[in-house]
């Protein structure tokens, strides 16, 4: 069945997310024991709530701050995360080259505020015709509902679609809906792997 739609993950595919590199920099700057801030930002129930759109960015950052007795400058932390979130320009340009022939969409586990920042500042709104985001749908990959939402928005079947993600455990379940899956490593590998489907 001919491919009609191509869907991209965001983190570490379309954007070099600022969370992983930014937090260690912040730990160093403030002499916070290595890994402690990352745990407070990521390995807590409120991270999942944030990515599901159940709490706002301000509420999330306030919860992170509580781990440090209110002494953490959360505005500086926020700035560090945003400044270290960089568009993957080569992949974005490649996606742009696919736009004339295919429906392009994004399927992402992302907090609303962060995704909106990427969407509005990295040129995604000019390239992608749909977005299925965990914070808007209140489900996260690998839940099939997020993938089904993407298919519905594109008006295609799974067999007519490709999904590109850097994490196999988030992508592989989409095969149940018929998606063709590519695990992203770099642009060169993506171009090589995608040929067999197009």
From TrEMBL:
<dbReference type="InterPro" id="IPR036412">
    <property type="entry name" value="HAD-like_sf"/>
</dbReference>
<dbReference type="InterPro" id="IPR041492">
    <property type="entry name" value="HAD_2"/>
</dbReference>
<protein>
    <recommendedName>
        <fullName>HAD family phosphatase</fullName>
    </recommendedName>
</protein>
<dbReference type="InterPro" id="IPR006439">
    <property type="entry name" value="HAD-SF_hydro_IA"/>
</dbReference>
<dbReference type="InterPro" id="IPR023214">
    <property type="entry name" value="HAD_sf"/>
</dbReference>
<dbReference type="Pfam" id="PF13419">
    <property type="entry name" value="HAD_2"/>
</dbReference>
<dbReference type="InterPro" id="IPR023198">
    <property type="entry name" value="PGP-like_dom2"/>
</dbReference>
